[in-house]
Amino acid sequence: MAREVKEVEIKSRADTLKQRPWPASPPPSREEVAKVYARRKAEEFGAWCEDNLWFHKRFDKPEALQGVRVLEVGQWRLGNMFAGSLLAELGAEVIKVEPPEGDPVRKYTPFGREEYMLKDPETGEPCGLEFIHEMRNKYSVTLNLETPEGRKLYKGLAARADIIFEEYPPGYMDELGIGYRQLSKINPRLIYCWIGVLGQWGPEKDRVSKFGQWMLDPFAQAACSFIHNTGYPDDFLPRGSGGDPTRSGVWLCDYVAGEQAAVNALAALYYRDEKSGRGQFIEVTGAEAMLDILDFDISWYGFNESIKARTGAWDPNLNQYAWNPCKDGYMMIGGQTDRLWYRIGMCIERDLPQFGRLIHEDPLLKEMAARNALQALTKTYTLTAMWLRETNRVEAEEKLMEYEIAAGPLLYIDETCEFPHFKYRPWIYSIEDEHYGTLLYATATTSFQQRTPARVKWLGRPLGKDNGEIFIKYLGVGQRMQEVLKEKGVI
Amino acid sequence: MCDIIWCKKCNTVNYLDPYCFWNWEGKINCAECGEVYYIHMIQGHMYRGPEPRPGEKPDIMPLYADKPLEGYKNYLPGTEGRTRPYNCTPRHIYLGHADYRKFSIRNRPMRAWAPQPAAGGVAGAYGFYWDIKKLSPEVWEEYQEKIKKGEVRDW
Amino acid sequence: MTDPREVRLEDLPGPKSREELEDMKAPYEEYCRKLFDVGNEYVKPAALDGIRWMSCTMYIFTPHSVSNLAELGAEVIKIEMPRMGDPMRHTSPFNECYYYPLHDTRPKTGTGIGVLNANVNEYYITMDYHREEAKEPFYRLVKMSDGLTECYRPGTFDRWKQSYRYLQEINPRFIYVWGGGFGYGPKAFGGSYDILGQSHAGLASITGFHEDFGGHPVKHTNWCIDWYSGTQITVAVLAALYWRRKTGLGTMIEFSQVQAATRCTGYAVPLYGRFGVVRQRWGNWDTQLCVHGIILCGKSDYPDEKNPQLRNEARYVMVSAFNDPDFKELCNIIKRPDLYEKYKTHKQRVEAEAQVEIYREIEKWAADKSRSEVVRILTDAGILAAPVKNDKEVYDSEHFRQRGSVRWLDDPMMGDVLCHSSFSCGLLSETPRRKFWDFRPVGADNIKVYHELLGYPMSTIKKWYEENLI
Ligand SMILES: [Zn+2]
């Protein structure tokens, strides 16, 4: 898989838009990696793992969810898309139902840059990378659900579906007569999962603006105290310069809601097939799915009225467990138990004798739990950063690895894409897509399996590309009728 | 020099926490003797200073300081006039050690204090019932009082 | 366009019962409330009743992957080191909150709230599995379970003859999960934590304020990569169970949390791959939509509170008005209609320089207002805005209470515990998720499992306990 390395010459802005060579350097060879296993006397086990879990064998193996049919019906958000992706990567047939003008996510592009969008090979319509990256192994059909014919066709699809991931404003589908309560009458085996931000019912349910604009993440992050608890305190940095409550760089609640939707839907599928023969109604929201994984934060309030503080890149529960600035960026170091904590110190002390004097000899830092006090964090990390400012990330990682410490540089995206382990697995990989050319992408997290590994078969899909196949296959609607429907704005 | 200020006047170590001071210029006081130092830090390095500036007003205080040569006597964050308050502490009371509690914020018993009387069976096995009446009768009493006073709430 | 196979709603006979008729007519919200019936979860069936899983896990990541199964009804046996337990039991924010006892022999040591919600509804046993005597009970458990999840460094379970290589011989239906940082490859033996995933995989580099604004990369407040990656293991496990129904065969799943952190970076990887552009941090604004960000208001909602967390921080509002009419209205409200004239199209206002100007002007407008005033004014005008809530406000939220996502539990061992998990990861009308208990003392179910399930006499259990095997 090592490819020839091409040089890029940049003479004008247009040159910067050219395809990059990836990987810039080849990943380590299997022989080199075998030596890593051997050093730990795990040569045989390492070889067994590579034989049985090897990424590049994924297309030699069957798909776990073959035969499961999923409709993905939503706009603007990533929750339904991520839920659909997780199942599609594992072999389900996922059909994304879009309005004839397409899901607005197709138009997302950073800072409005159209030059970072890829053109639909047929229509020339630009499509954003956010959409392409999450449109994995999915078919695209168009349906205008606001027309009676569109709804009728949709019902036909729903009658044959196992799972629907729906993400429209609360009650919208129900009002159109195609919500769970109507579709479950047509198809009692249907597992219908609504995904949203705050809920489709309750005093603070999802709203749309007066002009019809939807609520999108990070509204969910704001509602569950995630944002309030994330970021640097204004004791570290001024407000407006990072000393503020901070949102995740990504729409994290959408991803978290999407994966819980996938879990709940698959559990319901198991229950249907194993026991009841019936589907059910599921509701997952971004704010609540995040609340589920918000550590202990709200429970802590119930314990003694604590409101969690922001501590930036330091974790208030563990010492050491943080990243701090270093010579060429930021370095993450973790190790909490005495065994690991003192090993970190021994490593640093080699270069910075003062560390031993001020940290190891301090009686207040001898006990593991006591090291989590705020002053203990301050002292430990001040001294650690004194070492780090002289050390770059690679050096720090190498030195700490000698002491078997879980440490890693804070990587930027280009560095992530070129990190040897990431390329070896690979977690970053390229695909020659039928429509959009060579694309670099983050591989499916469930790709590494003995029997039924997940896989990415294609990325992105021109709008309505699969109308022809899906409408004839599932609805018996032929080409002539499709032309009529298109004319009427139904598809 | 580096990003601690080891005050020569009083032998106190003032810690300059990395995120606040990584790039920073201004005056900071010693937590113990109050001596004011001018520092200019770039990428964690002391580019200039610490230069004593007696009589001048500090721009900032350290977050923590201690005296390694005197049994690690220390100034915790938020010591008035000496160290910076950490306004982002979880709440206005800050302990740094276990907060023993017998009741949750709605005044129902919770097992959050030590030591707890032994209650397990063979091999550390436990049932599915906290017999508070038997194991901690005084907490049970207190709970009954709270019920009487109407302090036990649903939320 | 009629399809003979299609069943049309119009063709169906009318409602079959009075109840059904009422259901079909009920206002939608009422219908949802009735169907989900929050508060009565326990009387409904559970989806995974009958599945038994072994959890040889520690910390948050792999425990959570199993906890998801336990919330859905699987019976889970959590195996911990004798007397010590999961290291996560020894973590608590600023060392302050513990429940007692950890174990009868250590009456002064507690279980820290760091472990909350990671291993719910499980049975807790102890086993020092690298000792030879532990092999037999371990294999007995494997024979009667559906699967196992472990998180030890690669090769460790293999050395102890309990890797999938061995277990698939004992139980071909067995589903075996290894979860960790890296998996096979050059960094196979690298340890991993949530924070390593955040930093190593690119997520941290795109979270927080840009250095041009004086910011640094920010750690997500929770161990989000542990939790979020764990849930993706659950997805894989449920798919494997589905496939096993057809084939009768188990599988091995190797899952790396570091990879999962890259998976959620959206356009970042393809953008780099195609154009060599490295996605950067953009603070509290959005790179793809504008206006869609968080602003600072001049006044707190709790100016007189003693707690600085309330007094100083209750000043942030999430504002969203990226569509043309919404943005126009927003500009009118802040009395800057010229901004709308200047940035009429979304493409214009989402440019970086435009964002800097627009948010600055909104914050100027909000400088003499409190958070709730700003939210009220915008909401009254039909614009989407919401306060950035803190833990207290989440606790006080009527919305979460009605939906059961924040509720008090009477834990059978620990007493009154506030719960914001399990129920909150989704409402299921037929087989709701639920929590019976959060965690139990180390080894609390030794008799239940070793004696009642595996048939060892009490004298053997006592002996093992004295020998520190369990
Ligand atoms: Zn001094």
How would you describe this structure to a colleague?
The complex is a heterotrimer of chains A (491), B (155) and C (470). With 491 residues, chain A is α/β, with parallel strands linked by helices. Chain A has 2 domains: 60-292 and 428-487, Rossmann fold; 321-411, 2-Layer Sandwich (formyl-coa transferase, domain 3), CATH 3.30.1540. Chain A has 20 helices and 13 strands. Chain A has helices at residues 30-39, 43-53, 79-89, 129-134, 148-159, 172-175, 180-186, 219-223, 226-229, 252-276, 286-292, 297-304, 338-351, 353-360, 374-388, 393-402, 413-418, 420-424, 467-475, 479-487; strands at 69-74, 93-98, 118-119, 126-127, 138-142, 163-167, 191-196, 280-285, 321-326, 329-334, 406-409, 428-433, 437-442. In chain A, the strands form 4 sheets. Chain A has a 6-stranded parallel sheet with strand order 5-2-1-6-7-8. Chain A starts with 29 loop residues before the first helix and ends with a helix. Chain B is an alpha+beta fold and 155 residues long. The radius of gyration of chain B is 25 Å and the shape is elongated. Chain B folds into 2 domains: 4-75, no CATH class; 101-154, no CATH class. Chain B starts with a strand and ends in a 7-residue tail after the last helix. Chain C has 470 residues and is of the alpha/beta class. Chain C has helices at residues 18-25, 28-36, 61-71, 135-143, 156-159, 164-170, 194-200, 224-247, 257-263, 268-275, 308-311, 324-333, 337-342, 346-349, 352-366, 371-380, 391-396, 398-403, 446-453, 458-466, and strands at residues 52-56, 75-80, 98-99, 111-112, 123-126, 147-150, 175-180, 251-256, 292-296, 316-320, 384-387, 407-411, 415-419, 427-428. A 6-stranded parallel sheet of chain C has the order 5-2-1-6-7-8, with helices on both faces. Chain C has a 3-stranded antiparallel sheet with strand order 9-10-11, covered by helices on one side. In chain C, α7 (194-200) crosses α8 and α7 (194-200) packs across α9 (257-263). Classes of the chains: A alpha/beta (491), B alpha+beta (155), C alpha/beta (470). Chains in contact: A-B, A-C, B-C. At the B-C interface, β9 of B face β3, β13, α19 and α20 of C. Zinc ion binds next to loops of chain B.
